[in-house]
Model the fold of this input.
Amino acid sequence: DVKVTQSSRYLVKRTGEKVFLECVQDMDHENMFWYRQDPGLGLRLIYFSYDVKMKEKGDIPEGYSVSREKKERFSLILESASTNQTSMYLCASSLRGTGNTIYFGEGSWLTVV
Amino acid sequence: SQQGEEDPQALSIQEGENATMNCSYKTSINNLQWYRQNSGRGLVHLILIRSNEREKHSGRLRVTLDTSKKSSSLLITASRAADTASYFCATDMNDYKLSFGAGTTVTVRA
Done:
């Protein structure tokens, strides 16, 4: 079965902390994504990666960075967490090209206090 | 930027009834997908319809696409309590990214 695994389901971090959200997929997908989901705003794309070491900014990249050193792993980094980054973060992956299903992880609930 | 917008924002129906939700988008698309999200969980793919298709079925789901009106609808027939979830449309505009709407929250009452 297809699997996207997010390392942490719930996190509480302090303002100013550096936060790492890890995601691993076991489907050999080229594409990996990080989305943020907030009530009433739907899913917003933070960053996208189409290959190892390759990344592209999404709609809301400010305050975030990403790392993709291995094909199966895509990390989201909050360099200095702020309270407005409290949200649900969703990792996803898909095969290269259009018209492919995106497979999502279960989400990571981050609270910044 | 969000391309798709679902309507209504919320829908409450009795078990056994049909649920219909709509998605409108702004620019030309390659295909449109529908996803379901149970509360607090990740999204699960339901169905994909390509821009040259008008209707598609999958079990109790029926999706239509009208490219002239830039809109799609998702119909769930004979709803069950397990259909309680949020439903999102996602548009593919010939690149590798999907653009999601804010979703329709469906509550099926027993």
Q: What stands out?
A: Residues 32 and 99 of chain B are 10 Å apart (CA to CA).
